[in-house]
Write a structure and sequence with these properties.
Shape of chain B: globular
Number of domains of chain B: 1
Structural class of chain B: mainly alpha
Oligomer: heterodimer
Strand order of the largest sheet of chain B: 1-6
Order of helices and strands of chain B: HHHHHHEEEEEHHHHEHHHHH
Radius of gyration of chain B: 22 Å
Order of helices and strands of chain A: HEEHEHEHEHEHEHEHEHEHHHEEEEH
Helix content of chain A: 25-40%
Number of strands of chain A: 14
Shape of chain A: globular
Number of helices of chain A: 13
Largest sheet of chain A: 7 strands, mixed
Distance between the termini of chain A: 46 Å
Largest sheet of chain B: 2 strands, antiparallel
Strand content of chain A: 15-25%
Radius of gyration of chain A: 22 Å
Distance between the termini of chain B: 18 Å
Chain lengths: 413, 363
């Protein structure tokens, strides 16, 4: 008797991931993470706040909170609803992410989570529960997922544009181009982007080496690249491995131009007397958006204003910018759902379906959303050079690079 | 005062556990259930490891390898081939058991730290394989999918009974803890069997066991096989629940966690690994829940770092101060309390000591 009364599964008709019928505009009602009486929408961020990836998670959370502090101060979502952030430390551990998702799923309207394996582990539950989430990585695979709301230029685009820039502006014509990539889907994405660039631009990837994220010793891989006499190495990895890789190269007197994907960078490099000269001379970063402090971009202007008001001690940090951007993505989604007068899960899924073109006002390239087959991701990349005199330690060498090869690149759906 | 027989004492305990099993999914939210599901999965693997370590006296740091084997059997036979739940779980057990037996054969001449090193090597061999056989494992990217989880009319991926729909966490709690119970019953039967007695003899004194005609080779290989089989069952269920596995999940730290579970719960005791899995699986979430009232910020500690510290301290404390683990400690306390209660009025210390020494109240 008790058992019959206590089931709490989602009936088939209430969940699902796509192909929903348009919900009737029956007016706003309470829904998971949305309380009509207080006018509050709760959103969650599952991010590593401890362990080796903490260096990404903490500034990312600060950026996320700061954006919503600003939104709330300006009247809230659709000028009506305040946003409350629920932050959880997923420790970059898959079982912890799965448990935390279960913890927050009924408390929040939507969530963002950091780490490709973690998104993969939670994805089936998102589909079953009918929740839309923001994946905190630039994996192109997310484009095909109806319950995910990706942002930014995918890793393939970063290398396509980076290769185009190197061959034209970077003096790379006729030079030997190689790749060094972390094992996993993130590394695979980088390599597929570079191979697509090679095919479109007519060059050959002379050598490709892989390494594990937990590796601390890179002599074998870097030695292999040195032996192949690489002039430029397209690097896919995490901040924890970038320094040791460049350092190993320097020890072996191998100093090519390293072109790193966005997650290879940490502002901490500019504070290292040993690493800084190496980075300033031999490294360029391929990432989204403007350099820190470039107030010609409206979103950067707003972000700096929000920092002054809510987080005055915040130092320039690229992951703060990413967190702020993720909050902008959620804002766009919730604004749409509010305009449809439906902040239920079905309403938020419908909002994603109808979202269309979203401008991130220069903080990242624009996206077209909708059903997976109609989505078109950002195809722009900014080329940065480390420069300790700049806030955030990065100077934009060329903004919004978008080569014909990047524009024509087809993502598998 | 008449003393109830062990069988009569176990009946109310069994009934109470059955009630708890039925009621917990109705009383707890999906978050709490998810924590208990992971604890249950770890308990299955730890029961297997305890048979090897606590009963047969062998050392193994390779349980992560067997868990991975089971997970990838779940991927390929469950999610990819669409075979039924009993098939992929039993196949995982068979694969883990077979590989466990092979490892046992290799380990026949080794003891102590050498045996530990061999099993550590197994974890690293596994990591290489999981990364480099993408056809079976998805490679470094990992692999996802939904394995069928139906037993007759009960589909644990979407449980519906008498028109009532249950959440996936409710359903998987029932499934996982039923498997924990089945593993425990199987372990209990094995311990009481000729094989179990052979394991105990090998643990006590290998030479003496050999002298009285026990087949040492068979005892060791069977212990490794059972440990491998239960580790693989845990892995297959892990995949069935999470629906995604990547190679980074099967590192050495996972094996260390299994050893810690067995040590904290109590080696050589059936309830030990289950209790250890509940404590080590649940404690971090408990610490998180009360973290607001803990003055850890002033110490420069995050909740996760505090949990890591507590994990290390728990292991060190149990090994150094209470090697019999939680269950052993509880049994000890219970024996002492019963001894005091039974001591006749006016009787001296000698009676209590005698009662403890004879162990007449041990289950």
């Amino acid at each position: 008797m008790v058992a019959v009364a206590c089931g709490r599964g989602t009936p088939e008709s209430d969940a699902g991931s796509g192909g929903d019928t348009v919900p009737e505009a029956a007016g706003l009602v309470d829904a998971p993470g949305f309380d009509v009486s207080s006018g509050t929408i709760k959103v969650a961020l599952l991010t590593p706040l401890s362990g080796p990836v903490q260096v990404i998670g903490e500034p990312l959370l600060a950026g996320f909170r700061t954006r919503f502090d600003g939104i709330n101060a300006r009247g809230g979502i659709d000028g009506r609803f305040k946003v409350e952030v629920v932050a959880e430390d997923n420790q970059y551990d898959v079982p912890t992410s799965v448990q935390l998702y279960q913890k927050v799923k009924d408390q929040v309207a939507t969530l963002a989570l950091v780490g490709t394996p973690h998104v993969n582990a939670v994805l089936p539950s998102l589909e079953q529960d009918g929740i839309v989430a923001i994946p905190g990585s630039l994996d192109a695979g997310w484009i095909a997922e109806p319950n995910l709301l990706p942002y930014g230029g995918p890793y393939q685009i970063q290398f396509l544009n980076g290769a185009g820039w190197y061959l034209t502006e970077g003096g790379g014509q006729g030079k030997r181009i190689c790749a060094m990539a972390i094992e996993g889907p993130y590394g695979d994405a980088g390599i597929s982007g570079l191979e697509a660039a090679a095919s479109a631009e007519g060059f050959v990837v002379e050598e490709t080496v892989r390494y594990r994220g937990t590796d601390t010793e890179f002599t074998a891989q870097v030695g292999q690249l040195a032996e192949a006499r690489c002039d430029a190495v397209f690097l896919t990895g995490l901040p924890s491995t970038t320094g040791p890789i460049l350092g190993t190269g320097a020890k072996l007197e191998f100093t090519p131009l390293w072109l790193g994907q966005s997650p290879t960078w940490s502002t901490a490099f500019t504070r290292s007397e040993e690493l800084l000269p190496l980075f300033e001379k031999n490294f360029v970063l391929l990432a989204d958006g403007p350099e820190w402090g470039d107030e010609s971009e409206p979103a950067m202007r707003q972000m700096l204003a929000d920092i002054r008001q809510f987080e005055p001690d915040q130092q320039p940090d690229v992951y703060f910018q990413v967190g702020y951007l993720e909050a902008m993505v959620i804002t766009a989604l919730l604004e749409k759902a509010a305009s449809l007068e439906d902040l239920s899960r079905a309403g938020i899924r419908e909002a994603l379906r109808q979202l269309g073109r979203v401008s991130y006002e220069g903080l990242s390239g624009d996206w077209t959303y909708g059903p997976p087959d109609q989505r078109d991701p950002s195809r722009v990349t900014t080329v940065f050079r480390p420069n300790a005199s700049k806030p955030g330690g990065l100077e934009a060498v060329e903004k919004n690079v978008s080569t014909p090869a990047a524009q024509a690149f087809q993502f598998s759906r | 005062m008449s003393i109830p027989s062990p069988g009569r004492r176990r009946l109310p305990v069994g009934l109470a556990l059955a009630v708890v099993y039925g009621v917990i999914p109705l009383a707890l939210g999906d978050f709490g259930l998810s924590v208990l599901i992971f604890a249950g999965i770890f308990a299955i693997g730890a029961i297997g490891l305890d048979l090897l370590v606590g009963h047969a006296g062998q050392i193994s740091l390779g349980q992560a390898f067997f868990m991975a084997v089971g997970a990838y059997v779940g991927v390929n036979l469950g999610a990819e081939a669409g075979l039924a739940l009993p098939v992929w779980v039993v196949a995982a057990a068979a694969a883990g058991g077979g590989l466990g037996a092979a490892v046992g054969l290799c380990a026949l001449r080794l003891r102590g730290v050498y045996l530990a090193i061999i099993t550590v090597g197994l974890v690293f061999v596994g990591l290489y394989l999981w990364n480099n056989v993408p056809a079976l494992t998805g490679g470094a990217a990992g692999i996802g999918g939904r394995a069928p989880a139906a037993l007759g009319p009960l589909d644990f991926n979407r449980l519906q009974v008498a028109g009532q729909v249950y959440s996936r966490e409710q359903a998987w709690f029932w499934l996982v803890w039923a498997l924990v119970a089945a593993s425990a019953v199987m372990a209990a039967n094995l311990i009481g069997s000729r094989t179990g007695r052979a394991w105990h003899a090998v643990r006590q004194h290998e030479l003496a066991a050999s002298a009285i005609g026990i087949d040492i080779r068979r005892a060791k290989v069977s212990a490794f096989a059972v440990a491998g089989a239960l580790g693989a069952v845990a892995g297959s269920v892990y995949f069935g629940y999470v629906q995604y596995v990547g190679p980074d999940e099967w590192g050495l730290f996972l094996s260390v966690q299994f050893v810690a579970i067995v040590l904290v719960g109590g080696t050589g005791r059936l309830a030990g690994p289950v209790l250890g899995a509940l404590v080590l699986g649940g404690a971090p979430r408990l610490v998180e829940a009360v973290s607001d009232s803990l003055p850890i910020g002033g110490l420069g500690l995050t909740v996760a770092n505090l949990n890591r510290l507590l994990f290390g301290l728990l292991v060190v404390c149990f090994v150094a101060l209470a090697p019999q683990g939680l269950v052993g400690g509880w049994e000890d306390v219970r024996r002492r309390v019963l001894a005091v209660r039974r001591r006749p009025v006016g009787a001296g210390e000698h009676a209590a000591t005698e009662s403890v020494a004879t162990g007449e109240d041990q289950p």
